[in-house]
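User: what does the whole thing look like in 3D?
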Amino acid sequence: MERDFFDEAKTFKAFCDEKRLRILALLLDGEKCVCALNEEMDLPQSTLSYHMKILCESGVVEGRQEGKWTHYSISVQGIGGAAETLKRYVPKGVIQLGDEGCCASL
Amino acid sequence: MERDFFDEAKTFKAFCDEKRLRILALLLDGEKCVCALNEEMDLPQSTLSYHMKILCESGVVEGRQEGKWTHYSISVQGIGGAAETLKRYVPKGVIQLGDEGCCASL
DNA sequence: TTGTCAAATCAAATTGTCTTGATTTGAGGA
DNA sequence: TCCTCAAATCAAGACAATTTGATTTGACAA
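Assistant: Here's the predicted 3D structure for the full assembly of 212 residues, as C-alpha cells:
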C-alpha cells in the first residue's frame, strides 16, 4: 500500500501556520461566524478567507452556510484523522499505550 | 496561559511537506544514516540535509553522530508531543476515548 | 429589480520555502 | 600534517505560500 504523502501533507498544512493555529484556538470555544473571527484576528477579510479555505481543505474545519453568514467550526473527525495519521509515524514495536485498541478512535 | 503558536507550528512543519513525510516513512524501519536516506530518496545531498534539519528542529527526528556518519531516527517522544498538541485542538466537552487518562502519554 | 451586506475570489506584489552546486567543517586514516 | 570522505552550511535562484485592495458572488430586504 502506497501512502498518499501529498494528502497527508495537506492535512498538516492546517497546523503548520501560526495564524491558522490561532484561528483553531478561537474555534475551540465553538462555532463562529467569519465576522466574529475577523474581529478577534485583526486581519483583512480576504486574508482570513484565504486561511479558512486552507483549514477547510485540510479537513480540520467545517463551514456551515446560514443565509449571508458562514459559520466555521472544528471538525473533531478531522482532528481525529490527523492524529490517526500522526500515529502511523511511530515505529512498530515501540511499546505504547493505546495499541490494544482503547484509543483506536483517536 | 498563552499558547506558543509559533512553536506549535514549528512542530508540524515536519509533517506538512511531502518529501519530509517520505523521509519519516523511511525512518519507520529504524535508524538510518544520511547516505542510506540519500540513496532511497534520490535527492542531492544538500537538499536532504536541509530537510533533515527541519525534521530535527521540529523535534520529531533525532540525529546521532558516529564518527563521520550521522544516523537519524524518529523520536517517539517527538511524535507523541505532536499528538498531544493536536489533541488540544479538540473542543472541550466532546465525548472522546482517552480523556480519562488511559492515553495520557500519547 | 435594486441596494446592501457577508464572504469568496481575483490579481499583483511581497515574503518565505525549497533546491542545488560550491564551499566548509570535522572525523578518521595514511 | 595532509588527504579523504560524510555531512553541514552557504548563497543564489527557482518556486510556492501569503498578503491585500479591488472585484465578484450570492442571500436577503426594500
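In plain terms: The two ends of chain A are 22 Å apart (CA to CA). Residues 6 and 12 of chain A are 10 Å apart (CA to CA).
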